């Protein structure tokens, strides 16, 4: 009886003669691949370990020369502040380039003083104001807000600023005005990124007047207690903490009251992806990526994104009856 | 002998250039030079390197024909394997570090986000190519080997698409990558008709 015959071995199991003959080379090639795998493992381990080990040092670092100790300061939810270095070196400010580290490298060309802001449109007190007249002494305060970018990363930033409502009340918008539009400086010398047509310049943003008057909405002139660095939108910028970061228009030169809903720059660029409202909402995804989670800079694991960026109790009333999927 | 030495030298050069991005990332990681979002930075640089390596692989044959320098041909394998290595690292980094192995989200990404599906498919397509890159497999598969390895055109195209689809507004580099790919493909088709 036959226990086995050569035919029982499937032909795929037979080492081809060529491989057999070239076995030394075969071993060599396999070694190359194994070496590649080992290098890969080293990369993952080394880079993660390195990045994590280096983080605590960065986290302690605050604004150079700052007398105030920010290390114990927390948000209303007990969150730690994003280090000054990260807040001022990881920016979307396309007027100075489209990479996150472009603004910190290129924004030195911006001249934030002297600065004027034109208030116009449907209001009783239009005019051109110097920055100093905009900032009333005694109204400035620290506001610690979460900043959630539409790209699914976030920070916690101690802004220094004042309620936008103060400015609106002084301007006295007419009863028929429903929106306010803001514009950034348009200057190819100060903002060389505007030579590229990556967005329609000048950058424009808008708010409904009730959003603009909301007590959480501020105009910031500083961060970590002092003047804004150029890359963060010096000398004055908008901060609307329950909306995606791109609503926070930087280096503002004009405010216009109007009846019609203004078109913002990102809507103009891709209206199917970026809307007028841009409220932070984990349920409404960007067409190309999820908004359910975000990476808080300095943290390893992504965290859940909160409706209206965690300010739901304060702002949900503004949107009663509005379909947030349609008005994204 | 001279020819053998030249090949060894060229291969050594490929290894040196191919490992440089890993060393660069490691050094930046260990000295805290990866910026405020190191996870994203590493992810993007691994992806860039994979795509660049794929475009380099596709440029070897046209370059060889243009210059008549036939000793370039054996470089396709190490460069191709480096491309596969970086693409694998890019995927592992995405899955293990960026998404911390949260399968629910990884599966949702692959199913619902076309740019992730394109990138993932490119990686899957390259797996059989990496496995069959040895001399033994070249002999075993004979003519089918060449057919199989034409998948690299599909994988690279998907890689360019993956790159294009995730950019918010600044399409400069995706356009550069597309142009390079189109030129390399045209050089092939023109050659074949002659």
Mind explaining what this structure looks like?
The complex is a heterodimer of chains A (328) and B (194). Chain A has 9 helices and 12 strands. Chain A is an alpha+beta fold. Chain A has a domain at 72-272: Sulfite Oxidase, Chain A, domain 2 (Alpha-Beta Complex), CATH 3.90.420. In chain A, a hairpin with a 6-residue loop joins β11 and β12 (303-304). Chain B starts with a helix and ends with a helix. With 194 residues, chain B is mainly alpha-helical. Chain B is globular and about 50 Å long. Chain B has 9 helices and no strands. Chain B has one domain. In chain B, 83% of the residues lie in helices and 0% in strands.
Could you name the key traits of this structure?
A: 328 residues; alpha+beta; Sulfite Oxidase, Chain A, domain 2; seven-stranded mixed beta sheet; five-stranded mixed beta sheet; 12 strands; B: 194 residues; mainly alpha; 9 helices; 0% strand
């Amino acid at each position: 009886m036959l226990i086995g015959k050569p035919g029982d071995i499937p032909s795929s199991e037979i080492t081809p003669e060529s491989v057999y003959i070239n076995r030394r080379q075969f071993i060599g090639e396999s070694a190359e691949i194994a070496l590649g795998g080992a290098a890969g493992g080293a990369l993952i381990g080394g880079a993660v370990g390195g990045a994590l080990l280096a983080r605590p040092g960065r986290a302690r670092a605050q604004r150079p020369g700052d007398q105030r100790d920010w290390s114990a300061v927390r948000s209303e939810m007990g969150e730690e502040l994003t280090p000054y270095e990260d807040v001022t070196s990881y920016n979307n400010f396309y007027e100075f380039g489209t990479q996150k580290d472009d603004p910190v490298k290129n924004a030195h060309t911006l001249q934030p003083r002297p600065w004027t802001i034109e208030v116009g449109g449907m209001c009783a007190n239009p005019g051109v104001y110097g920055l100093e007249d905009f900032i009333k002494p005694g109204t400035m305060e620290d506001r610690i807000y979460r900043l959630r970018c539409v790209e699914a990363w976030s920070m916690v930033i101690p802004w220094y600023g004042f309620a936008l409502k103060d400015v609106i009340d002084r301007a006295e918008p007419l009863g028929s005005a429903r929106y306010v539009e803001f514009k950034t400086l348009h200057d190819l010398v100060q903002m060389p990124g505007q030579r590229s047509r990556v967005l329609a310049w000048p950058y424009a943003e808008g708010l409904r007047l009730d959003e603009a008057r909301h007590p959480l909405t501020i105009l910031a002139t500083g961060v970590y207690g002092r003047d804004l660095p150029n890359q963060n939108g010096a000398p004055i910028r908008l901060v609307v903490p329950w909306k995606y970061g791109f609503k926070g228009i930087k280096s503002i030169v004009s405010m216009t009251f109007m009846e019609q809903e203004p078109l913002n720059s990102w809507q103009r660029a891709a209206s199917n992806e970026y809307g007028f409202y841009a409220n932070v909402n984990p349920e409404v995804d960007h067409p190309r990526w999820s908004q359910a989670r975000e990476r808080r800079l300095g943290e390893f694991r992504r965290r859940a994104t909160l409706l209206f960026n965690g300010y739901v109790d304060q702002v949900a009333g503004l949107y009663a009856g509005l379909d947030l999927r349609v008005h994204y | 002998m001279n020819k053998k030495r030249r090949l060894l030298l060229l291969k050594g050069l490929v290894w040196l250039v191919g490992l440089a991005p890993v060393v660069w990332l490691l050094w930046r990681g260990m000295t805290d030079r990866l910026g405020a979002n190191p996870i994203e930075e590493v992810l993007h640089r691994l992806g860039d390197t994979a795509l660049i390596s794929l475009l380099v692989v596709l440029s070897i044959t046209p370059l060889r024909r243009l210059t008549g320098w036939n000793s370039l041909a054996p470089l396709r394998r190490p460069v191709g394997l480096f491309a596969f290595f970086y693409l694998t690292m890019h995927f592992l980094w995405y899955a293990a570090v960026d998404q911390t192995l949260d399968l629910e989200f990884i599966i949702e990404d692959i199913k619902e986000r076309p740019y992730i599906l394109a990138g993932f498919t490119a990686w899957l397509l390259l797996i059989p190519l990496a496995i069959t890159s040895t001399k033994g497999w070249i002999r075993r598969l004979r003519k089918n080997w060449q057919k199989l390895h034409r998948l690299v055109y599909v994988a690279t195209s998907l890689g360019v698409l993956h790159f294009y689809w995730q950019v918010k507004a600044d399409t400069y580099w995706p356009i550069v990558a597309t142009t390079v790919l189109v030129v390399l493909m045209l050089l092939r088709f023109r050659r074949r008709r002659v």
